[in-house]
Amino acid sequence: MKKVIICLFTFALVMTGCVSTTSKKTNSESKVIEIGVDDAIVKIQKKQSFVLLVTRKQCEYCEAMLEMLKDTINDHNLVIYDTIMRDDTVEHLNEDVDKLKAYLDRPDQTPHYYYIKNGEVADAQKGYTQFQPDRFWEWVAKNDLEGMK
Which of 4, 34, 113, 126 pairs with 48 at a CA distance of 20 to 30 A? Predict the structure, then answer.
């Protein structure tokens, strides 16, 4: 009987040693980088490939989307460039929209995100709702953008 107990104890000890705890890995290179409208245009003109998010400070949907990204970006392998249009005055907003219109469709509708491939818009989607928080990440998966820096 003593041998059976020792065998069971040894077996249990070995099995608990095999159990590993999994921790969620975070990607330290994943981030949202704020850039100006002119900086976004330069990246497009240089024929770069990147994910561009167009937002405004006075846009509650933009704020909600940025909060969602802050909470989830480390679960993904992606760098997002957030160009924040100046909306402190109508003139500034119109100026930024006009600059971006030369390269992007409907930059006035925010938040709006674009997959820029070699300086051209390969895909775009607009809007954010807290009822569909995964919509952006589904778009990222559809375009196979994980790993883009």
Answer: 126
pLDDT category of residue 21 using cuts at 50, 70 and 90: very low
CB of 129 closer than 8 Å to CB of 135: yes
Instruction: Specify the pTM.
Output: 0.79
Domains of the chain: 27-142 (3.40.30.10)
